[in-house]
Amino acid sequence: MTKTQQGATTPGTGWNFFSNYAHVIVCLAQNPDARLRDVAERVGITERTALRLITQLEQSGILMRLKEGRRNSYIINPSERLRHPIEEHCTVGELLKTILSRNAFNALTQRFENVKRRSHKPFSV
Predict the structure, then answer these.
(1) Is the pLDDT of residue 85 over 90?
(2) Is residue 110 part of a domain?
(3) Which of the residues 20, 83, 108, 109 has the least number of beta carbons within 10 Å of its own beta carbon?
(4) Can you give the residue range of the structural domain that contains 61?
(5) Which CATH number belongs to the domain containing residue 56 in this structure?
(6) CB within 8 A of 39, min separation 6: which ones?
(7) How far apart are CA 124 and CA 2, in angstroms?
(8) How far is residue 15 from each of residues 10, 38, 53, 84, measured CA to CA in Å?
């Protein structure tokens, strides 16, 4: 049986369709105020790896980190394109729309639009 973290892998298979990057994005889409520890635990990775993935997603313009006191909150850019040539015709939003509930997806897009309207700096790097 393979390692399971809240359904991270199916017993006996050892592989998933989505990368840890996608899993991190889904976790933050479902809970934009999630702690690094919670994301890492849910995905089944270390906190250090979660931080590295979040930093890379932020540098690529897919994710924006907002400081709220001592905590971070995350905004996902649903219009950013996926990176691999096979799926570059799709956006992050299109991917998330297939995974998230309708309410969670609508909350994500509304949150992005609100931040985009209020922000004076561009979302992408």
Answers:
(1) yes
(2) yes
(3) 83
(4) 20-118
(5) 1.10.10.10
(6) 24, 27, 28, 50, 54
(7) 37
(8) 8, 21, 19, 19
Q: Name the token pair of 69.
A: 């006191």
In a domain, 3, yes or no: no
| 99 alpha-carbon distance from chain centroid | 12
CB neighbours of 109 closer than 8 A, spacing ≥ 6?
78, 93
Domain count, the chain: 1
The average confidence (pLDDT) of the chain is 88
Task: Please indicate, yes or no, if residue 13 is contained in any of the structural domains.
Answer: no
With beta carbons less than 8 A apart as the criterion, state whether 43 and 50 touch.
Answer: yes
Q: What is the 3-state secondary structure (H, E, C) of 81-117?
A: ECCCCCCCCCEHHHHHHHHCCHHHHHHHHHHHHHHHH
d(CA 50, CA 56): 10
pLDDT (tens digit per residue) in 11-68: 556 788 899 999 999 999 999 999 999 999 999 999 999 999 999 999 999 999 999 8
Q: With 0.85 as the threshold, say if the pTM is over it.
A: no
